[in-house]
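hey so i finally got around to running the thing on that chain from the lab meeting. sorry it took forever, my laptop kept dying and i had to restart like 3 times. anyway pasting the input first so we r on the same page abt which one it is
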Amino acid sequence: MVDYFKDKAKEWDSPMKIEMADKFIAEMLKSVNFGVDLKVLELGCGTGLAGLQIAPLVKSIIFLDSSTQMIEVLKEKIEGLTIKDRSTVINGTIDKYTTQDIDVIFSLMAIHHIENTQKTFEHISSILKPGGLFVIGDLKEEDGSFHGGEYVPHNGFNVQQLAQQLENSDLEVVTTATYNSMNKNGSVYEQFILISKKSNQA
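ok and heres what got predicted. didnt touch it at all, straight out
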């Protein structure tokens, strides 16, 4: 697998990305109660800008990313922090995790990098506990200019279509909202949050 973030990881934590993570966390915390008994997973954690804010609130957290370089930066951050003992770092894709023991999975600006979202959502549903939550923060549909001509599988999402994929994976959509807009290269891009819940039945 090609690591598209190999040359970006060291400079990833720009003011724009930090602000993006902060706004996502603030929006997520309006609807999700993270408690000290929860086991959570961040899909596409990058350098941990979002997940490191959630880690102190929960029993344990799994940071997962397919970029080796992003993971290396994250490990450097975690070293010496009090959350280290309850943090697991996985360099790989979500299908490598197969235990149904996760209370909350969240992902910021990562789903549009996944080719087969339907297959991914089905796997996410399989590792969530009954009643578990899956929270997505990502781009609304855009013209492809956000990534400056670089190939990504999805130029943002039609939220209704994404919601249907989640429903097809036994993940009931609880709420959706547009929570952020940002200026980049003279264009305005909107971000949405989508929270879905797995059926309470085992």
